[in-house]
Amino acid sequence: IGKLGKKGPTRAEQAHVYTWEEVQEHSHKNDQWLVIDRKVYDVTNWAKRHPGDATVRSFHPDQTFVQKFLKPLLVGELATHEPSQDSNKNTAVVADLRELVTHLRNKGMFVARPWFFGLHMAQILLLEGGAWLLLCSDVWSVPFNAMSLQVQVSWLQHDLGHSSVFKTTSWNHIAQRVLMGHIKGVSAQWWNHRHFQHHAKPNVFSKDPDIKMVKLLVYGIKKIKFLPYHYQHKYFFLMTTGASLRSHRYYDVLNQSPCSLKDLAWALSFYLRYFMCYVPLYGVLGKVYCAFRFLESHWFVWVSQMSHLPMNIDHEKHKDWLSMQLSATCNVEQSAFNDWFTGHLNFRLNISNLFPTMPRHNYHQVAPLVKALCEKHGILYQEKSMGTAMADVYRSLKNSGELWLDAYLHK
């Protein structure tokens, strides 16, 4: 089985048995091999279309379905004397995490409760209706009501993208398109494509699209002189407005990430509703609409970034799944307010990132088990108060900006 850059197959390739050293020779953009359960796959062409990474177990609970795609890519297996994990991964941690996942599946922790999401959908409809009923009586109560609507939608569409809320994935995708496209005005396919990449390699340069903001923020790595980065902890607040986020979304949709015609149609339906409903009442740049978009965007950015931005941001270290996720995320402590305000994403570290397909109503039950696993293996488990987590975003941006100033302007 000859590969790119080789004159012919080696003896090991003829026998379909490989060492880790041979597998790692195929780690280039146009020649990529992958090991899953000791099986070796040539994923060169597949990787160009797939948004994730080596995350078969985490993102795809139906392994039978996955095998339909992997089987044609199979080129061999690891030699019997080779370990199941490459040298940078802790075998004991991998084994214990898999045992925990099996235990959680047997306990039904990956099964969604339709009534839980049905109640949230009912709340969305009530908020949507309430916003319009308040138009005639108290116009400035609309932004806050509408912001609550957008927050609820964000929670629900997040779970639709991660886990199977409905019995079939097709209904899951339809519901997510309606929520993302019609109510929020963006592409569900774009969101999934970016979000799966983020979960596969959080805070890893060139692999996590959520940190590809080197023209706006700097982490003390590259010499970039576009902006006064030593003030980034201040202008970060301006970046959280709806306008900047929405323009960034559509740049990706049109130029980088996939977007189907169905997704585009749903997104355009949001603007049809906007021009039919908001513009006649408030004008194209209506203050009410801009107000709730501003509030919603601040909520979205703070909730998503306070678990990631203060954490380690670095190049690929090829760590095991548990160690990689914990080094890039932290938790916000549990409380009734924190659970509601973040939509249970305060459990970002030990649930949302470790177990992407788990529905969020089970997060609090799994957290103690993950904490015990970390204590067993001496892995740092970080949990903060809401105030500390938000303040750490400010501090981390300020610190990296000062490092940039010292490294590139004062040398």
What does the model show?
The chain is globular. β2 (27-28) and β3 (31-36) form a beta hairpin. It has helices at 11-14, 20-24, 44-49, 56-59, 63-70, 91-106, 114-133, 142-162, 169-184, 188-200, 232-239, 242-255, 261-282, 287-305, 321-328, 336-342, 348-353, 363-377, 386-408, and strands spanning 17-18, 27-28, 31-36, 39-42, 74-78, 331-332, 383-384. Helix content is 57%, strand content 6%. α8 runs antiparallel to α9, α8 (142-162) crosses α14 (287-305) and α11 crosses α19 (386-408). The chain contains 19 helices and seven strands. The longest helix has 23 residues, at 386-408. With 411 residues, the protein is mostly helical. Among the domains are: 11-87, Cytochrome b5-like heme/steroid binding domain (Flavocytochrome B2, Chain A, domain 1, Roll), CATH 3.10.120; 114-206 and 236-302, no CATH class. The strands form two sheets. The protein has a five-stranded mixed beta sheet.
* DSSP summary: helix tally: 19
- What percent of the residues sit in helical stretches (DSSP H or I)? 55-70%
Placed side by side, the strands forming the largest sheet appear as: 1-5-4-3-2
N→C terminal distance: 52 Å
